[in-house]
What does this fold into?
Amino acid sequence: MQTLFEKMGGLPATRTIANEFYDVMEKEEGTRKLLEMHPKKLVMSRHKLYKFLTQWFGGPKLFGEQYVNAEWLELKHRRLNFNEDEKNQWLYCMNSAMGNLGFESELKEEIMTTFREMIAAMQALKK
Ligand code: HEM
It folds into this structure.
């Protein structure tokens, strides 16, 4: 069975998604709160997201086995204490990024479902 990484188009595609995700966040008024939670310069955030997504979708292990899971993500996001609004802004940026890049709606939905599941797993660990 093809991995999501293969379906999406490999390394160039995950790099493009990570960049488009942050481009959307920087451009849109409605995601200002989420942008403000980030460091001023997004170079490292773009790079980390690219490496994380590559590994998580089943591509090369660029990020490190011990980090690509809900436990580690929950730890990394704990101090942010994001609310429903910020969570929706995050999902909006991902959805728009894939829309802007012309992803087929079936693939986009499959990926959005994995994001929602990862967020739910992170939130379940917090309680
Ligand atoms: C849904 C709510 C989410 C919010 C509000 C959020 C917000 C943030 C913020 C503000 C940072 C930057 C932290 C910093 O550098 O100071 C960050 C880092 C990061 N986020 Fe999220 N995030 C969310 C969900 C996710 C999900 C679902 C994933 C993965 C699929 C993810 C992957 C990452 C990664 C890989 C980093 C870099 C961590 C590091 O190495 O420092 N985030 N997130």
Observations:
- The chain has a mean pLDDT of 96.
- The two ends are 35 Å apart (CA to CA).
- The pocket of protoporphyrin IX containing FE is lined by residues 34, 37-39, 45, 48-49, 52, 73, 76-77, 80, 82, 86-87, 90, 115, 118-119 (CB under 6 Å).
